[in-house]
C-alpha cells in the first residue's frame, strides 16, 4: 500500500518554522538581556574605578578625586574590572576587547563648577544645618558691599583734603612773602628818615628780591589749585559707580560733608583773581624800587660833589625828601583773606596715621608677642595660575556653604595647626606668594570693611560729627561753616574711622570679637586718642563689649564677596599644596571628577541558526562623583 508523506513534510516545515521563531524570540530576548548585562557590568566596573579615589583628599577635605597619570588610565583600569563579568557571563557570553576614554572632566574643569558641586554636596548632606535665609545673606552682602565701597569714596576725597592743606600752605607762603615785603619797605623808610643811604639800599634790595619770589609762589599756588580741581573732577567720575553701592542715608550724609569741596573750589576762584593782581603790582614796585635806589645814589653823589666854596651847602633834607617821594609810591598789597592752617601739627599727625596704615599695617595691628609665619607658596604650578576668568557664579546660599566649608577645613592666623603654609584662608582671599603678604592683604581688607562701617557710624552720630568739626576748626583757625573747615572735618572723620578700625583689627587678631555695627557704647577711640595714635604710632586693641564677630567670621564675610571662580581655584591651590607634602608631584590637574568610557568587543549568539555566531558589541558608561 502506498503511503503519502505530505503531512509529514508539512509538519516538519511547520516545526522548523516554529523552532526558528522560538529560537529567534529567545535569542532576541537573550541579546537584549546581554545588553543590559553589559551595561550593568560596565556601570559596576565604573563604580569600582571611581572607588579608587584619593584617600588623603577625602580624609583631609572630604573631596572625591580620581587621580590618573595618562588619560587612557581609567579605561585600562575599567577593563580589568570588566574581566570577572566576562568570565562569569552565564547566558550572556561576550568579550570586551578595548576601552576608549571619550572624555574626562577634571576637578579643575568647567571654571571650578566640579569642585563647587562636590563642596555643595558635602555641605548640604546634613553636615551643616545652620544656613540662614537667602534674604539675610543678601542683606549682609549689601551691607558689606557698602562698607567696602565707602572707604574708596572717603579716601579719595580725604586725599583732596591733603591737597587743600598744601594749597593753604602755598597761600601761606604768599602771605608771608607779602608780610616780609612790608617789613622791608618799612625798614627802608626808616633808613631814609635817618638819611642812611646804604641801609636804605640794603632794605630796598631785600624788598626787590622778595618781590621777585612772588610770581613763582603764585605759580606754585595756581598749579596746586588747578591740580585739585582736576583731581576732584576725576574722583567724581571714578567714584560714580561706588556711590551706587551706598544706601540713601549714607549717601545723603556723605554729600552733606563733601559739599565743602565744591564750595572750596568755588571760593578759590575769587581768591585766585585777587592773587593774580599781585603780579603786576609786584612788577610795578620793582620799577619804583630801582628808581628810588638810583635816586639815592644821585643824592649822595650831589652831596659828595658839592663844593664848599659855593656857599651854604646843599639842602640835604630836600634831596632825601625826593628819594622818599619816590619810595612812598611803593605799595605792598594786602590780601582780604587769611591763609594757612593755624594748627598744622595736628593735621600732620592725622596724615601720619594714614601713612602708617598704608606702609606698616601689620606692625600697627599685630598683637604684642605674635609672630608672622614665614611660609612661602610656590605658585607657578597651582591651578589658579591658569584660570583667570570669572564666569562661574554662586547663589547667596551656595556662597555661604562654600565659606563655611573653607572655614571648617582651612587654617588661618588664629589656627594652632603647624604647617609650612599656615594662613590658608588668607591665601584664598589674597592669592599672594607668602604667608606674610596674605596676612597683610587680609588685614587690609578687614580694615577697609571696618573703616567703612565705622565711618557710617560717625556719619550717623551727630555728636561725633560735631566733635570732628570742632577739631577741624581748631586746625584751620576758622569758625563757622567755612569750606576749608568742612573739608578738614571730613578728613578728620575718615582718619577717625581708620584709627578705630586699626584698633578693631588688632582686637580681632588678638582673638577678640568686634561688633559689625558699632554703637556709642562699643566705640573705643576718642579724638584725643586719635591724635596720640598719630604721635606715638601705636594703637591699642579695642576693649570690645558684648557679642560680635571674630577674625574667622570676618574672613568668611570677605570671601562672601570674592568672585566665585577665583575662590574655587584658590581652594584647589590649597588642597594641592597640602596633598603634595606627602605625595610630591601631586597636581589637581590630574584628578578626574567625571569620566565617560566606551567599551567595544564581540558577543556570541546561543540560539542562532545562521552562519557566524559572533557579533560586535559596544557599551557606554559614565560616572561622576
Summarize the SSE layout with pairings.
Layout: H1 6-50, H2 55-61, E1 66-67, H3 73-87, E2 94-106, H4 113-124, H5 134-193, H6 197-238, H7 240-243, H8 248-276, H9 278-305, H10 316-327, H11 344-359, H12 361-365, H13 396-409, H14 424-430, H15 435-460, H16 462-476, H17 483-509, H18 527-536, H19 551-560, H20 564-582, E3 591-604, E4 614-624
Antiparallel strand pairs: 1-3, 2-3, 3-4
* Residues in helix, %: 55-70%
The global form is elongated
Beta-strand portion reads 5-15%
Protein structure class: alpha+beta
Ends apart, CA distance between termini: 81 Å
Rounded average pLDDT: 85
- Please mark out the parts with pLDDT under 50 across 5 or more consecutive residues, or reply none: none
Tally of individual helices: 20
Task: Compute the CA-based radius of gyration.
Answer: 43 Å
H/E topology pattern: HHEHEHHHHHHHHHHHHHHHHHEE
Characterize the biggest β-sheet: 4 strands, antiparallel
The strand count comes to: 4
Amino acid at each position: 500500500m502506498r503511503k503519502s508523506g505530505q503531512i509529514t513534510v508539512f509538519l516538519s516545515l511547520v516545526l522548523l518554522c516554529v523552532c526558528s521563531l522560538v529560537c529567534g524570540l529567545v535569542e532576541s530576548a537573550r541579546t537584549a538581556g546581554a545588553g543590559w548585562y553589559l551595561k550593568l557590568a560596565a556601570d559596576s566596573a565604573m563604580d569600582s574605578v571611581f572607588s579608587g579615589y584619593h584617600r588623603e583628599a577625602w580624609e583631609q577635605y572630604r573631596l572625591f578625586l580620581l587621580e590618573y597619570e595618562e588619560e587612557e588610565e581609567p579605561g585600562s583600569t575599567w577593563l580589568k574590572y570588566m574581566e570577572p563579568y566576562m568570565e562569569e557571563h552565564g547566558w550572556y557570553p561576550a568579550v570586551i576587547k578595548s576601552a576608549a576614554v571619550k572624555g574626562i572632566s577634571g576637578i579643575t574643569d568647567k571654571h571650578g563648577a566640579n569642585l563647587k558641586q562636590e563642596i555643595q554636596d558635602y555641605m548640604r548632606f546634613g553636615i551643616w544645618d545652620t544656613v540662614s535665609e537667602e534674604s539675610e545673606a543678601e542683606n549682609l552682602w549689601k551691607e558689606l558691599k557698602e562698607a567696602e565701597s565707602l572707604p574708596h569714596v572717603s579716601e579719595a576725597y580725604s586725599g583732596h583734603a591733603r591737597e587743600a592743606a598744601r594749597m593753604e600752605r602755598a597761600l601761606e607762603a604768599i602771605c608771608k612773602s607779602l608780610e616780609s615785603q612790608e617789613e622791608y619797605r618799612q625798614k627802608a623808610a626808616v633808613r631814609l628818615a635817618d638819611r642812611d643811604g646804604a641801609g636804605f639800599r640794603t632794605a630796598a634790595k631785600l624788598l626787590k628780591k622778595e618781590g621777585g619770589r612772588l610770581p613763582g609762589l603764585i605759580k606754585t599756588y595756581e598749579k596746586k589749585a588747578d591740580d585739585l580741581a582736576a583731581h576732584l573732577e576725576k574722583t567724581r567720575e571714578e567714584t560714580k559707580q561706588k556711590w551706587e553701592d551706598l544706601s540713601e542715608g549714607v549717601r545723603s550724609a556723605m554729600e552733606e560733608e563733601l559739599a565743602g569741596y565744591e564750595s572750596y573750589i568755588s571760593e578759590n576762584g575769587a581768591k585766585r583773581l585777587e592773587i593774580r593782581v599781585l603780579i603786576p603790582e609786584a612788577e610795578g614796585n620793582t620799577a619804583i624800587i630801582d628808581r628810588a635806589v638810583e635816586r639815592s645814589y644821585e643824592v649822595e653823589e650831589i652831596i659828595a660833589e658839592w663844593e664848599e666854596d659855593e656857599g651854604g651847602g646843599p639842602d640835604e633834607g630836600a634831596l632825601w625828601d625826593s628819594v622818599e617821594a619816590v619810595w612812598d609810591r611803593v605799595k605792598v598789597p594786602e590780601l582780604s583773606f587769611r591763609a594757612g592752617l593755624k594748627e598744622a601739627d595736628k593735621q600732620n599727625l592725622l596724615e601720619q596715621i594714614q601713612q602708617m596704615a598704608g606702609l606698616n599695617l601689620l606692625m600697627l595691628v599685630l598683637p604684642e608677642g605674635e609672630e608672622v609665619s614665614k611660609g612661602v607658596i610656590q605658585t607657578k604650578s597651582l591651578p589658579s595660575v591658569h584660570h583667570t576668568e570669572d564666569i562661574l557664579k554662586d547663589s547667596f546660599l551656595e556662597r555661604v556653604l562654600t565659606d563655611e566649608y573653607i572655614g571648617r577645613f582651612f587654617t588661618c592666623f588664629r589656627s594652632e595647626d603647624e604647617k609650612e603654609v599656615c594662613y590658608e584662608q588668607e591665601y584664598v582671599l589674597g592669592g599672594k606668594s607668602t604667608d606674610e603678604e596674605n596676612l597683610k592683604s587680609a588685614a587690609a581688607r578687614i580694615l577697609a570693611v571696618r573703616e567703612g562701617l565705622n565711618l557710617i557710624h560717625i556719619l550717623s552720630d551727630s555728636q561725633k560729627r560735631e566733635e570732628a568739626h570742632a577739631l577741624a576748626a581748631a586746625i584751620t583757625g576758622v569758625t563757622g561753616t567755612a569750606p576749608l573747615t568742612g573739608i578738614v572735618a571730613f578728613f578728620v572723620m575718615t582718619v577717625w574711622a581708620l584709627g578705630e578700625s586699626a584698633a578693631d583689627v588688632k582686637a580681632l587678631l588678638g582673638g577678640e570679637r568686634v561688633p559689625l555695627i558699632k554703637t556709642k557704647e562699643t566705640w573705643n577711640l576718642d579724638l584725643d586718642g586719635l591724635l596720640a595714635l598719630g604721635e606715638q604710632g601705636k594703637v591699642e586693641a579695642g576693649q570690645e563689649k558684648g557679642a560680635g564677630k571674630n577674625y574667622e567670621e570676618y574672613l568668611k564675610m570677605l570671601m562672601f564677596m570674592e568672585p566665585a571662580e577665583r575662590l574655587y581655584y584658590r581652594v584647589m591651590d590649597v588642597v594641592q599644596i597640602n596633598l603634595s607634602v606627602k605625595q610630591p608631584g601631586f597636581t589637581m590637574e590630574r584628578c578626574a571628577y567625571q569620566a565617560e568610557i566606551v567599551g567595544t568587543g564581540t558577543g556570541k549568539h546561543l540560539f542562532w541558526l545562521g552562519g557566524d555566531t559572533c557579533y560586535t558589541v559596544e557599551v557606554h558608561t559614565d560616572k561622576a562623583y
